Structure formats: C-alpha cells, structure tokens
Amino acid sequence: MGALARHRESCAKAILNVMGKRILIIQGHPDAAVPHFGHALAGAYARAATDAGHEVKYVAVAELPFPLLRSSEEWNSATLPPSLQDAQNAFRWSDHVVIFFPLWLGTMPAILKGFLEQVLRPGFALNYSDQGFPKAGLIGKSARVVVTMGMPAFWYRWYFRAHGVRGLERSILRFCGIKPVRESLIGMVEAKDDAERKHWLTKIEALGRKAA
Questions:
Q1: Residue 160 is part of which domain span?
Q2: Is residue 7 included in any domain, yes or no?
Q3: What is the maximum alpha-carbon separation in the chain?
Q4: What is the arithmetic mean of pLDDT over 133-138?
Q5: Cα(83)–Cα(97) distance, rounded to whole angstroms?
Q6: Rounded to 5 degrees, what are φ and ψ at 184?
Q7: In whole angstroms, what is the distance from residue 72 CA to residue 60 CA?
Q8: Domain-located, residue 110
Q9: Considering the domain boundaries, does residue 4 fall inside one?
Q10: Residue 11 lies in a domain
Q11: CATH code of residue 108
C-alpha cells in the first residue's frame, strides 16, 4: 500500500471514529449456558459495528444476579442492585440501544422485563413531577429490537398484532424518550437452514455497520 492509499485509509477511519455512535447491546436470552441463534445475531451486530468505528458495550442479562421488584415502594425508592450499576451507566452512555431476545408467550422473557424494570427507574429513565405525569429521561437515544420466534414473523404481526413487542417499544422505550425504535422480527428460527441463518446474520451485520 502506497503512502497516499495509507493516508486515505487513515482519513476514512478518522471520519468513522468522529461519526461513530456509542451502542449498547442487550442480550435478553434467559439461557446463558448454551449459545442460541440470538447470541450469534448479537455477536454479528457487535463485530460489524466495531469494525465500522462505533463503540460497543454488551450486557448479557442472564449473567447478572438481581432481584425482581415487588412493590411500588421498591420501584420508586429501592437502591439499584450493584450488579446492575454498570448496565444503567451503559444506558446513560449510549446513543443507540439494541435489544436481542427470543419471543416467549408472545412477549419478552421475564428476566429481560425484570432487568428493564430495575434499570429504567424513576430519577433515571423517568422523572416525576408534582403533576404526576413522568418526563422522559432518555431523550436523544434510538433503539432497535431484534426478536427471534418459532412462528412465522408475518403471522405474529398479522394475527397477534405483535402486541408483546409493541408493548416494549411503545410503553417502555418510547415512554422513556427513546426514539425512533425499529424492529427486526425473525420467524421460524428453529426451522432455518444454514443458508437462511447466514442471510439473517448478513442483514444484522449491515445494521451494525450503520448503527441502525
């Protein structure tokens, strides 16, 4: 490689570093013992984003010990578990959040819901005033939700109206000020052959490069 080519490559990398986003990847699969296709998808996104000059932090929810919230008093005033402090700081740090999870009973697994309830607390993701209606605390961030499922994705969208995913997008992420929120629904995941899985990995890689 000549000096001019090296200079151009250096300039291109510098531009990417300046324009790069800070991305938080949340792996919401409850099973940390066995790798699943969702883990491969998250890894593909992370590698592509890093190669494109973005900064990436990765949180695997199943590897974090934390209790479930059981009352409004805990929601409003209990101390955030120390095991989740880094995750909350990563939310604060990020420009873009990508959440991966398998569809369980039409929505996110319970462990992911419990994680979000703990991390997205009043005073951080929501700020309550005397009027009672909360002000969003995470304005300026965007998100993508990547969901794997056993049924066809079009069937989940059409027949079930994707209510579980819509609830996460509308009632949690957008409610906290995160928008736009986009989604990738991957159906019939157990039945996919190697070519179909590679197709989806390539699509997710492309999203990672664009931090989309």
A1: 21-210
A2: no
A3: 65
A4: 91
A5: 19
A6: -130, 115
A7: 26
A8: yes
A9: no
A10: no
A11: 3.40.50.360
25 touches 208 (CB < 8 A)? no
> Which residues are CB-contacts of 55 (< 8 A; sequence separation ≥ 6)?
20, 21, 22, 23
109: left (phi over 0), alpha (psi -120 to 50) or beta: beta
Position 149 confidence tier, pLDDT thresholds 50, 70, 90: very high
Distance of alpha carbon 101 from alpha carbon 107, whole angstroms: 9
- Number of domains within the chain: 1
Reported as type and span, the H/E element at residue 127 is strand 126-127
State what percent of residues in the chain have pLDDT above 90.
86
Rounded alpha-carbon distances, angstroms, from residue 18 to 15, 24, 26, 52, 210:
5, 18, 24, 11, 14
- Model's pTM, two decimal places? 0.89
Give the angle subtended at the CA of 47 by the CAs of 53 and 82, to the nearest 5°: 95
Judged against a pLDDT cut of 90, whether residue 15 lies above it is answered with no
